Automatic annotation (TrEMBL):
<feature type="transmembrane region" description="Helical">
    <location>
        <begin position="425"/>
        <end position="441"/>
    </location>
</feature>
<dbReference type="InterPro" id="IPR049453">
    <property type="entry name" value="Memb_transporter_dom"/>
</dbReference>
<keyword id="KW-0812">Transmembrane</keyword>
<keyword id="KW-1133">Transmembrane helix</keyword>
<feature type="domain" description="Integral membrane protein YccS N-terminal">
    <location>
        <begin position="75"/>
        <end position="332"/>
    </location>
</feature>
<protein>
    <submittedName>
        <fullName>FUSC family membrane protein</fullName>
    </submittedName>
</protein>
<feature type="transmembrane region" description="Helical">
    <location>
        <begin position="140"/>
        <end position="160"/>
    </location>
</feature>
<feature type="transmembrane region" description="Helical">
    <location>
        <begin position="28"/>
        <end position="55"/>
    </location>
</feature>
<feature type="transmembrane region" description="Helical">
    <location>
        <begin position="453"/>
        <end position="486"/>
    </location>
</feature>
<keyword id="KW-1003">Cell membrane</keyword>
<dbReference type="Pfam" id="PF13515">
    <property type="entry name" value="FUSC_2"/>
</dbReference>
<feature type="transmembrane region" description="Helical">
    <location>
        <begin position="522"/>
        <end position="540"/>
    </location>
</feature>
<dbReference type="InterPro" id="IPR032692">
    <property type="entry name" value="YccS_N"/>
</dbReference>
<feature type="domain" description="Integral membrane bound transporter">
    <location>
        <begin position="412"/>
        <end position="534"/>
    </location>
</feature>
<dbReference type="Pfam" id="PF12805">
    <property type="entry name" value="FUSC-like"/>
</dbReference>
<feature type="transmembrane region" description="Helical">
    <location>
        <begin position="402"/>
        <end position="419"/>
    </location>
</feature>
<feature type="transmembrane region" description="Helical">
    <location>
        <begin position="117"/>
        <end position="134"/>
    </location>
</feature>
Length: 749
């Protein structure tokens, strides 16, 4: 345990999160020290505020978006500050300005994560503007101009430092993706044998899938956009190769979502035969976690000995199972183990590809992905003005959140004014930091904020009681700011702790009565948290069950497109399969959004988790269906298969009809009657007969003493077994999805 904690601390200090915290702190300290030495220190606080306000929009992504985002943030923060300061002497003007500015700024969240951070900077500028004092128009304009200068200084400083120490962000996101993928493989390993714990493990998988998909999107923007903009470099090429292998690992894992009911049927009495395969997944997961550490530490990559040893044990495990059960009884179980082994062998190949790239093996440097292909895989954020105005509707969760935030900010301001609370703008600051579009996230951040504030306050009290040395306060303030900015996205509770200590120590430098600062800090946090929770719960609440229809609809639509792309792949295997890959990416993103929406629903109050079990079933069915399609596509891609049969097309068309009917239910279209004639039964019989013929042929070979199977016969058996079982599985899943969706639509109609 101690060793793991020390390792985590080392990784934190070597990672980009701490590095970014250092950049923020030094970019604030440099102008403070410089202006003090030049005897013009009165201008320094405005520069420091400008840095602090515009740092949030500096997140991993393409250089172009980073520069444009920071410039927009600079314009917004300086203009907002000036507007608030000009209106500050007039109470009723502020009563109008605060909700209007909150509305206009908060709605920028419609432009994605970077847009939401720019909006946060604008709101922060409004609140801090209420906390500073300038009397004349010239002073206000100079302050606004210095804030803009502070933002520009931060942008130039980060660009310079990133040129001197490049690619820290890429390494951090690559490392985090390796870590999450490793954890994902280990959870998959547990699912093989943990029959009674599968629901909990499946929920873990849903959460990990969402996190991995988010990391993939970030890496697509960082690596593919950069490649398009500035061409190839050796470093970028290496990182892109690692990313491609990580995507392949994730998609291979999703494509091999095992039918655990069949596994339990065949191996319930012989679980020992599953252990080598479970162990191989654990070893591969641990290896990816060790590689994630190597990316940050820059040390040697771990040896491959454990990987090879685990693979060999899994290979022998198939023979041990056949020897134990005996053919032909062991055939279906052996086919399942063969398919599982093939999948794990491909995973291991991708892991070894990552190893070769990290070890700078020359043969790993050729990149297959063309620039024209790469651009198609980037998810572009649309920045047209129409998006802003389209979200001015009660159908938009962002609009409803904006209205709640308006009311909360005005209530916090009026509460502070009416009760003449010292530093009442801290209440407003708590509101903008805590409030999120849904109740569950707001409640979670409220809890973490309060706990973090209390811990920070206790720590600050202990220090202030021990010493009144201002140098100690200054050092602790600088350290607190560094750790706050480093941890705020990773662990909000700890980040909130350091934010509290930073604010208290800064005020302790300015006000000898620091205990009052601590008292008001805690009280204001509690008031702001209460306002946030109440407005989120009572005003235009965004209960997640109301938004799920569109999310499920998107999954069904993208799964249908992916199914048809897989059918096309089976007919045109040697053609360019870029459309297959793109449809696969969109389907995975859609199911990731569904997973995230369901996770948010579980955070809502129990009374608002309507039909939770039914929705969980629909989420699981959609996820399993997508995995089954991916499994089919993966097999077609990586194996020498025969041309798709007429029966294959009959199955696909039948499954598509079920999905079309499901989509029509969700979209409230006119329902067309489903034709379930004899065609599908006939196709099922023919596919089963084909597998049985091959099985009988193999039985005759065994009777004649041919115990070692030919590779071609093994491939034919695997293909016949997998195609029949996957199509049958997909048919059953599509029918179950249709029935569950009918119940869902009826429940909410």
């Amino acid at each position: 345990m101690i060793k793991d904690n020390l390792k985590s601390i080392e990784l934190f200090f070597k990672g980009s999160h701490f590095y970014r915290g250092l950049i923020l702190t030094t970019s604030i300290l440099i102008p403070l020290v410089l202006f003090y030495s030049l005897d013009i220190f009165s201008y320094a606080p405005s520069i420091a505020i400008g840095v602090f306000l515009n740092a949030p929009s500096d997140i991993p992504g393409s250089l172009k978006r980073k520069i444009n985002g920071t410039l927009l943030s600079i314009l917004l923060t300086s203009a907002t500050t000036c507007i608030i300061l000009f209106g500050k002497p007039f109470f009723y003007v502020l009563v109008v300005l605060i909700p209007v500015l909150t509305f206009l700024i908060s709605l920028l969240s419609a432009y994605g994560f970077r847009g939401s951070l720019i909006a946060f900077s604008g709101l922060l500028a409004m609140v801090i503007g209420l906390g500073v004092h300038y009397d004349t128009p010239s002073q206000i304009l100079i302050h606004g101009l210095l804030i803009a200068c502070g933002g520009l200084w931060y942008l130039l400083y980060t660009l310079l430092v990133n040129r001197l120490i490049p690619k820290k962000d890429e390494d951090q996101v690559i490392s985090e993706t390796l870590l999450l993928t490793g954890k994902y493989l280990k959870v998959r390993a547990k699912l093989i044998t943990k029959k009674n714990n599968r629901t909990k493990l499946q929920n873990e998988l849903f959460l990990l899938q969402t996190q991995i998909s988010e990391k993939h999107e970030t890496l697509r923007e960082m690596l593919l956009t950069e490649r398009k903009r500035s061409g190839r470099s050796h470093f970028d090429e290496k990182r892109l190769l690692i990313f491609i292998s990580l995507v392949d690992i994730f998609e291979l894992a999703l494509a091999n979502n095992l039918d655990y009911t069949k596994i339990d049927t065949h191996f319930s009495e012989r679980k020992q035969h599953l252990k080598p395969f479970k162990n191989l997944n654990f070893v591969m997961g641990n290896h990816l976690i060790m590689l994630s550490e190597s990316v940050i530490k820059g040390n040697k990559i771990p040896t491959k000995n454990k990987l090879i040893k685990a693979l060999n044990k899994a290979s022998k495990g198939i023979k041990y199972y056949v020897d134990d059960v005996q053919l032909p009884k062991a055939r279906e179980g052996a086919m399942m183990l063969h398919n599982l082994y093939d999948y794990q062998e491909k995973l291991l190949y991708e892991i070894r590809s990552i190893r070769r790239v990290m070890a700078n093996v020359k043969s790993a440097s050729s990149l297959k992905l063309q620039d024209t292909e790469a651009v198609q895989f980037i998810t572009h954020q649309e920045y047209s003005s129409s998006i802003y105005f389209e979200n001015i509707s009660f159908k938009s969760p962002i609009f409803r959140h904006t209205l709640r935030l308006m009311v909360s900010m005005l209530a916090a301001f009026l509460f502070g004014e009416y009760f003449e609370i010292r530093n009442a703008y801290w209440i407003m600051l708590t509101v903008i930091v805590i409030m999120r579009p849904n109740y569950g996230l707001t409640k979670e951040r409220t809890k973490n904020r309060i706990i973090g504030t209390l811990i920070g306050a206790v720590f600050a009290i202990a220090i202030i009681m021990l010493t009144t040395n201002t140098i100690v306060y200054a050092v602790l303030a600088a350290l607190s700011l560094t750790f706050a900015f480093s941890l705020i996205q990773q662990n909000y509770r700890v980040g909130a702790t350091f934010i509290t200590t930073y604010i208290i120590f800064v005020y302790a430098l300015l006000d000898p009565n620091a205990m009052n600062v601590i008292k008001f800090r805690v009280i204001d946090t509690l008031i702001g948290a209460l306002i946030s929770l109440c407005t989120t719960y009572f005003l235009w609440p965004n209960w997640e069950y109301k938004n799920l229809n569109d999310v499920i609809e998107s999954v069904v639509k993208n799964s249908t497109i992916y199914l048809l792309a897989t059918q096309n792949l089976s007919h045109n295997k040697n053609s360019d399969n870029i459309n297959y890959k793109l449809s696969r990416k969109e389907a995975f993103l859609a199911v990731g959004n569904l997973n995230a929406a369901f996770q948010r629903m579980t955070q809502d109050p129990k009374s608002k988790q309507i039909e939770l079990d039914l929705i969980y079933k629909i989420v699981t069915l959609n996820h399993t269906f997508l995995a089954a399609v991916a499994s089919l596509g993966s097999f077609i891609q990586h194996h020498k298969t025969r041309e798709a049969s007429e029966q294959f097309d009959v199955f696909i068309n039948h499954i598509k009809n079920n999905l079309d009917y499901t989509f029509a239910l969700l979209h409230k279209d006119e329902l067309k009657p489903l034709h379930t004639g004899a065609d599908i039964s006939e196709a099922e019989d023919k596919l089963l007969l084909n597998f049985q013929k091959l099985s009988k042929k193999r039985n005759k070979e065994i009777e004649k003493g041919k115990t070692i199977i030919d590779k071609s016969m093994l491939n034919d058996l695997q293909e016949a077994h997998l195609i029949y079982n996957q199509l049958l599985w997909l048919k059953g899943l599509s029918e179950s999805l249709k029935k569950s969706t009918e119940k869902y639509v009826n429940a909410f109609s």
